[in-house]
Every structure is written in C-alpha cells, then in structure tokens.
Amino acid sequence: xxxxxxxxxxxxxxxxxxxxxxxxxxxxxxxxxxxxxxxxxxxxxxxxxxxxxxxxxxxxxxxxxxxxxxxxxxxxxxxxxxxxxxxxxxxxxxxxxxxxxxxxxxxxxxxxxxxxxxxxxxxxxxxxx
Length: 129
Description:
Elements: H1 3-7, E1 11-15, H2 19-31, E2 35-39, H3 42-49, E3 56-60, H4 68-77, E4 83-88, H5 93-101, E5 106-109, H6 114-125
Parallel strand pairs: 1-2, 1-3, 3-4, 4-5
C-alpha cells in the first residue's frame, strides 16, 4: 500500500497560526484524497479532540496561547496516541530535546517543502510513495 492510500484511511490534524501553511497543506492533502482538519490554535484542536480523535497531528511549535510541545504533552496525558510531528522556525537543541522527551515522533524545520512532510510521513508509517 502506498503512502497516500494509507493516509486516506487516517484522520490528520494540522495546527498552525499561519494561514498560508494551513491552506497549502489542506490543498495538498485534499488533492491526494486525504482528510486534513486545520486549526489556528492548540485550543481549537483540543476542542475538536473532545469530539473526535486524530491518527496524525502536525503542530507548529510557536502558537498563540499554548505552544505545540505543551499541546502534545496535554494530549499525551489524555491517553491519545497519534503520530506527533512538530514543525518550527525556532529550532534549537533545547526545543529538539524537549520534543524528543515529550514523545514527539519527528521535528521539521521551517521553511519546509511539502515533500519534506511527505517523506517524514513515509518514514513514520513505513511506506513508500
């Protein structure tokens, strides 16, 4: 099974306060027939997660209100076990260590290409394109 065939069966969430990133990722995933829900804040995503679960969550590190790492810590204590990907323009050793300690599966630096998201998902899901 290829990556997008597998992703079409999963529910993916994206949290980023940058409208351009949300829109471009939504268009990319929709073109591939995948279900991507987008949120501007971690709090919006948490409200949705009270009603439904996600298989994969991609979250920006720097968000208004709760940051991406704190968001992932919060959902981890709720018992959810999605694949967690953190994207950040503020990469540092400290952020990387905190992300790893928090059970985040992958860290992607901004700016990134959609191919980077695709390659990361392929790696995490053990799939080829």
